[in-house]
Design a protein that fits this description.
By secondary structure, the protein is an alpha/beta fold. The protein is built from five helices and seven strands. It has one domain (12-128): Glutaredoxin (3-Layer(aba) Sandwich). Helices cover 32% and strands 22% of the residues. The strands form two sheets. The protein has a five-stranded mixed sheet with strand order 5-4-3-6-7. Strands 1-2 form a two-stranded antiparallel ribbon.
Length: 149
């Protein structure tokens, strides 16, 4: 797991529409980078839908959401369309970013998240994600960080 107060490793990956996203281009706002094992599986769907349901609040707090798995662009597109996911899903087919973020191995991806602050530093790590409660946990933590606590 990456350490808090260290720079978040930069990356560029394609999203569900095959548009490239570079982490460093989001500096100036909070970014939730959440890793998940597989599109359209029970836990991953529960987590994605909880974030979807709270997405307006994420936007109000200026939080960009980037979900990452080893699934393909096409798989992400189907997943996003099936559940009406309004945020970005990134395809890490070669698992380089998953490896850089200590979020798994060549064989599997862990359910782990990182909250990155506006300066591009790791603000919080979430190694034991509860898919149903994760969105609320992130929003609570960002509210505290924005208050300077």
């Amino acid at each position: 797991m990456l350490e808090i107060h260290t720079p978040a490793p930069d990356f560029t990956l394609p999203d569900q529409d095959n548009t490239s996203h570079t982490l460093s281009s989001y500096q100036g706002s909070f970014v939730l980078v959440y890793f998940y094992p597989k599109d359209d599986t029970p836990g991953c769907t529960k987590e994605a839908c909880a974030i979807r349901d709270a997405y307006d609040i994420f936007k109000q707090h200026g939080i960009t959401v980037l979900g990452i798995s080893k699934d393909s662009v096409e798989s992400h597109k189907k997943f996003a369309e099936k559940y009406g996911l309004p945020f970005t899903l990134l395809a890490d087919i070669d698992k380089k970013v998953i490896s850089d973020y200590h979020a798994g191995s060549l064989l599997m991806t862990k359910r782990i998240s990182y909250l990155i602050d506006p300066q591009g530093m790791i603000a919080k790590t979430y190694p034991n994600v509860d898919p149903a409660m994760h969105a609320k946990e992130i929003l609570d933590d960002v509210a505290l960080l924005q208050k300077g606590e």
